[in-house]
Design a protein that fits this description.
The complex is a heterotrimer of chains A (307), B (336) and C (393). By secondary structure, chain B is mainly alpha-helical. Chain B contains 15 helices and four strands. Chain C folds into two domains: 26-144 and 278-353, Rossmann fold; 147-271 and 356-387, Rossmann fold, CATH 3.40.50.2300. In chain C, strand 4 (96-98), helix 4 (106-115) and strand 5 form a beta-alpha-beta unit. Classes of the chains: A mainly alpha (307), B mainly alpha (336), C alpha/beta (393).
Chain lengths: 307, 336, 393
Amino acid sequence: MVLFIEQLLNGVQLGIFLFLVSAGLTLIFGIMGIINLAHGSLFMVGAFVAATATTASGSFVVGLIAGVAAAGVTGLAMEYFILRHLYHRDHLDQVLATFGIILFANEMVTIIWGRTPLFFNAPDILNGSIELVPGIIYPVYRLFIIAVGIAVAALLYGVITRTRVGMLVRAGATDREMVGALGVNISVLFMALFGFGAMLAGLAGAMAGPLISVEAGMGESQLILSFVVVVIGGMGSLRGAFIGAMLVGIVDTMGRAFIPDLLKLFLPIAEADGLGAGLSSMSIYMLMALVLVIKPSGLFPASSGSH
Amino acid sequence: MSNKRNTILLVLLGAILFTMPLLLDAIGQSFLLGSATRILIYAIAAMSLNLILGYGGMVSFGHAAFFGVGAYVTGILSFHMFEDTTIFGLAGTNSAAIAWLASIAISALMALIIGALSLRTTGVYFIMITLAFAQMIYFLFVSLQRYGGDDGFMMFDGRSRIAGLELGDDISFYFVCLAALAIFAMGFKTLVNSRFGQVLKGCHENEPRMRALGCPTYRYKLVAFVIAGAGAGFAGALQANLTEFVSPDYVHWTRSGDLLIMVILGGIGTVLGPFFGAAAFLMLEEFLPIIFKGLGLPLLQEHWRVVFGPMLILIVLFAKKGLYASLMDWGRRKND
Amino acid sequence: MKRVTKLALAGSLLAGLTASGAVQAEPVKIGMITTLSTGAGYLGEDVRDGFLLAVKEEGGKLGGVEVEIMVEDDGRKPGIGKQLADRFLKQEKAEIITGVIFSNVSPVVAPLTLKAGAFYISPNSAPSTFAGAKCHEDYFAVAWQNDSLHESAGIYATDLGYKNAYILAPNYQAGKDSLAGFKRYFKGDIAGELYTKLGQTDYAAEIAKIRAAKPEMVFHFLPGGMGINFLKQYSQAGLIKEIPLVVSSVSMDSRILKAVGDIALGVRSSSHWTGDMDNAANKKFMAGFVETYGRTPTVFASQGYDTAKLIASALKATGGKVLADKDGFRAALKAANFDSVRGEFKFNTNNHPINQWFGRIVAKGPDGKPMNKTVKMVSNGLADAYASACPLK
């Protein structure tokens, strides 16, 4: 039972992390209608710059800020030079152009930083574990991610529901042309939004650095996961991204934790291990297929989700 | 005018492809025949994707899945032939007739299942759900321990057998692939010009209107999806034969991206475009490093993707018409 | 019209490029197909640099014979490996193929090479396929047979007195082989065994299971980035001191060490080579590598270097003849008459080495940075499990 609760907590933690990765993606899609495969590359830039800046300055906070800023600047450049020419193109063009950005970004990172994964550990204060309740020992850094994730979610919720920018974002998700008619400078709004989305990706990357290997191509597995998240949640919906991230995090973790053991009740151990691992790696994709079959536009569709 | 030009292009292309082994031999580069064969095979896969992408407007980001299924079916049958074991109670085989047909049939079946579910969605959801299904198949192959898991497996039995032909000979195999491509292209042309093709295009251009006309658009799109899956499966069977090797890498999500690029690069919604796209894409991949080496740019030789990526972006931004249209328009602007 | 000339120019340029290499047929051509891109690119990079260091030491020669080394990246893809092998063998007429890192590329490249009548000398990957009944007289593995890596970790863990172990690996063939190899020589019990997703980034669920199982130690085979992910998270869970890790060398090489830093202190691994080995060849190699490339070599660099040295010894014996004196070259390779950086070196009947294996532990080096320190020899010659099935003598 204790193990079950601990695994559930692990699932929630992974979910919150996935929300951090996907929030920017869904925001950008929701208001700008842009499907950005290079979101994972921004994640990678955040991690690399944060690692470098942390090592250079000795401060994790400086590293985080640098990573977020670098991802933001990269995002702005990406928007200015490439993506703004694609707003009126179909999704296919967006997929291909941003696919090109991935190839470029991975190779560029290899040229700049080389092929050795970068050194990046959490500061001592966040290392180690604490006993939450008797029997459940939990790493402090993962609790830190949960805290940051919830803070970001709350901030986004506040901005979207309470501010003028949030109103524009909501309006834009419903009717992009109307926002233009309101006299808002769309191209500035879009650029700012894209930069903000990129910063969120950079934040996720910088936060992930102490947990995972900082290496070229590290963004891709996150990218695919975050696509699963936003598609389940409904593209363009922040609430959907949050729920989707939780679902994916919990299903993935619980699958890895319990499917092989469950199968062992019915199958020989060797087969159960292999099949269990296979099934658990497919579990989130099955979840996604299931959701889309029942609700073809995700759980919380934003109206411009498929135009 | 356009027709005449098209005919010239076809004759020229046919002549080059038909004499390719001789041409390569003449310039002392006969080892490139393997690369040429690969182009023919990928051209079939790209053409099949173009049916749903260019004519049906369905952006599938998981087309490599069917390519992989085709390769695995032929590979697995050969594997059991060599080991003299059975799969689901059936003996393995190295007969091209049986193995390739099985590849086509099972890919079509997979496409039927995946398509039936995916086509309930549209737009960006369709892109993503096809990607998700391809990922499922990828992880399925990775977990097939008997067939090497992530490493894949060699076809120790060699290439499939066709009575009267020695496919183990690279030149024979090249011509088999060339014939396959020619037949596929002709069938494809007939298909898109048929009533079926017209309806499919109609679905793409204005689906609500087609539906209002009482046309079962879902069924048309699904049939197209299945045909495309079968085509990719056939290409996969040929690819397994070319390399005598099968691995989950064929289904990696970037392979699906590569196929999309081939179609766009060559010319979306044209019969021959994907062939040019496949040729250009695979040649760039193979020769860019060599070209940079020749130009004395060792950094770019190693990191050629840093150039390849932006090239893709530029093509999308500025050359959307594709190579085929450029060839057709070539030199015409002055006269217009 | 202009475009036609441009095309023709490009064409002749290409033809010229490939032809120019073939004019002087003097040097022995060695094709190196290795993995330079992807996350695992550093493995190939080190094999290449180790190999080229040996060539540089002799000023472009190996064993006193002019050599031309052609290096290409297979991108860890069997298909590209095949194209490269085709080009090297048929076009460039390479006499030796080497460099392959991964066990998904070697089953494609090795048979092609052998079919073309050239020599295949692996600096790394050595799957069981070519060690047993399907071994070949012209196929040599310089590093190890894949299973030995993990068998030696099993020996080391037993030697350390652990009574039970939790073991995990990715769910693919090399992963399953690794666990089987570990179990073959580990005399304790298995507290738990689990398979993870290939390329997995989050290991919270697995770590929770390990904590609940309370084993005495953990063995894992999570190469490259996966191992870094696991180690970082394992350390943050506070388990690294409670439940120690015993792994094989490839899961704790110097680049991984550099990426994780102090948290790796105390991790034990088994290896056939370590930077601190006390022999003349190794000292020369270490000094030369650091001087030339400005970084610490990994075990992969040592394998690349040994591969070059082995080829050099054979070239010297035949006076530069490879395919012109196949029997002589083969016999000279098998004799392995060279000073290996790992000290002793000898081939088993199946052309895979019988290595000495050493236990290591990560500890602070003289510069205060963590490094692998050799503790003791755990096996004085480990033959692989497949040699008896190989008909070669």
